[in-house]
Amino acid sequence: MSQRKRSKGLGSSQLTGGEDDFIPTQVERRSQDQVNQKVSELVQFLLVKDQKKIPIKRADMLKNIIREYRDAYSEIVKRADRTLQAVFGLQLVEIDTKRHIYILINNLPRPEGQHLCRDKEKEKMGLLLVILSFIFMKGNSVKDSALWEFLHLLRVYPGKQHSVFGDVRKLVTEEFVRQKYLETTAIPLTDPPEFKYQWGPRAEKETSKKDVLNFVAKMQSKDPTFWASQYSEAEANKATT
Amino acid sequence: MSHTGNSGESSPASRRRRRSRPPHAQEDRAEEDTAEEETAEEAAGERLRQLDIGDGDDREHNRMIRSQYRELISTVQQNREAMLNSKSNRLTEALEEANRLFDGVCRAREAALDAQFLVIASNIGKEKANELHSEMSAFDSTAFAEDLLTFMGINRTEVEETDDSEDVPGAFLPSDAWRTMGEEASKYFRRAPTFHYMMGSFKSEPPAPKQRIERQKKAGRGKAEQAMPAQLKKMEESHQEATEKEVERILRILQTHFENDPNTPISFFDFVMDPNSFARTVENVFHVSFLIRDGLAKIKLDEDELPIIEPIKPSEGGEEDSRAGVRNQVVISLDQREWKEIIETFQIREAMITPLYENTEEEMETE
């Protein structure tokens, strides 16, 4: 008896609250077991989808996992997030509230000592951090020509195959952009067309301006306050997130 | 001419359309004007109002103007980077040049080129403004790059031999450079570790348990055979059974000796000791222990408190003795010194348990 009441409550809450673009066709009786099952499936789905670090679309979640449980969608997602946090120490974050796109980030404080991840991943993170610091220190937006000129100094060339990164141009302009670490926009009225690079939403969530400034300061053996305006911007940024 | 900057098209039709709008109506580009931009726009506006759209009979003149404009545009585009340099005045110079050219314009066609130039010039002006307005404190990216290379472990003393002319000569970047950087970088990201199955997918194998059961049955059967009196012939050779064979042989020796002289118990030491080999002595003790364990022989102490050994008749064996006689566990330790002492004390000259193999040179040495 109580089970039935619970699920009905679930249904009705979806009707009143919840998302606007959802029209639950029928408030079906959902047993807790069935919902639990869906939550587990969603958790697994998210973990596997996250392997390539490409943000996950809500549409994919609905099509592959939620399916006929659309009316319980928010409940399932909320609980999946709770499971991810409690069991894996990960967090489900929406990076695009309009198009409903999600990523998984790490909730745990960063451990000291060696990180257990594949070398390839580590190397890419190294390059990414360097790029992100450059962008931030240069005013949050750089032209692609400026970026490549900087990477030149680090023996990374867009036209040449790199011994570690392979096709660097592809890595930067496609992979990092698709993963939402970087965002690229065309500069208008340029011929040939030029692009500018900024931090992507994943970068905003996974790291912060303050962290990046600290990295730069560490590399250059200076105090972060050395760069006054970047420092105050980083402090302001920290306050809002 | 309003600086709209929304599309780069410079077709005369669109220019005419734009010209019809009041010159001071500007689309918000959210950029502050620099002095240059204001000058350019004001001048353009003025000129526009003064423009006299005539027939333009002088074709030669007009063609020259057009070519000059095109040259100016091309120059500006190609030297874009140079113009962006805040120290350079080249943009202002280009604008003044265009201003001068405009004096000779009297037709829409040339004016269109002038408009095209203006769009490009304003764009550059905007970029220059951007760079001026940068609120960021000066950041030396070259120094930063050097520091990064240092962190990655660059060796500036060695000269690397490469066929690549682009590489900076005189410095060697190790192969794990980016891994080092990545190790540091991972501290700054809250990146979710990627999820992978450790052992791959599970594949069950039903045949395995069956084999185990078969082996156990075999082992059981073997033991059962051994419990019977030793005359049973063994069909197979195996490691285990080598020991058993030896144990058997020893039992037979014991029984033979006892048969010959049933009333004299055999001293344990006499029986197991091999004065020629310590190793074999130990092995004999080991094998005798099997006999004791299986209830085929027994060791007891005689009046002098010395151990004696005698076989147990199979008919007698079993329940009587095991009830009456206490089954004790004894641990015997024997080292080479003790072994020598015993041989001396008991004057053991030869082994009762004849060795299986001839003495090798090596064995001789261990004695």
How helix-rich are the residues of chain A, as a percent range? 40-55%
The number of distinct helices of chain A, counting runs of at least 4 residues, comes to 10
Tell me, what's the shape of chain A? globular
Shape of chain B: rod-shaped
Task: Offer a quick outline of the entry.
The complex is a heterodimer of chains A (241) and B (367). By secondary structure, chain A is α+β, with helices and mostly antiparallel strands.
Walk me through the topology.
The complex is a heterodimer of chains A (241) and B (367).
Chain A: H1 2-16, H2 32-49, E1 56-57, H3 58-66, H4 73-88, E2 90-96, E3 101-106, H5 119-137, E4 142-143, H6 144-152, E5 161-162, E6 166-167, H7 168-178, E7 182-187, E8 194-199, H8 201-206, H9 209-220, H10 228-240
Antiparallel strand pairs in A: 1-3, 2-3, 4-8, 5-6, 7-8
Helix pairs in contact in A: 2-4, 5-9
Chain B: H1 12-20, H2 35-50, H3 59-78, H4 80-84, H5 90-103, H6 108-132, H7 141-151, H8 177-185, H9 207-227, H10 239-260, E1 266-267, H11 268-272, H12 278-293, E2 297-301, E3 307-311, H13 319-324, H14 336-346, H15 361-366
Antiparallel strand pairs in B: 1-3, 2-3
Helix pairs in contact in B: 2-5, 2-6, 3-5, 3-6, 5-6, 10-12
Q: What does it look like?
A:
The complex is a heterodimer of chains A (241) and B (367). By secondary structure, chain A is α+β, with helices and mostly antiparallel strands. Helices cover 53% and strands 14% of the residues of chain A. The longest helix of chain A is centred in the middle third of the chain and has 19 residues, at 119-137. In chain A, 30% of the residues are buried. With 367 residues, chain B is mostly helical. Chain B has helices at 12-20, 35-50, 59-78, 80-84, 90-103, 108-132, 141-151, 177-185, 207-227, 239-260, 268-272, 278-293, 319-324, 336-346, 361-366, and strands at 266-267, 297-301, 307-311. In chain B, strand 2 and strand 3 (307-311) form a beta hairpin. Chain B is rod-shaped, with a radius of gyration of 54 Å. The N and C termini of chain B lie far apart (117 Å).
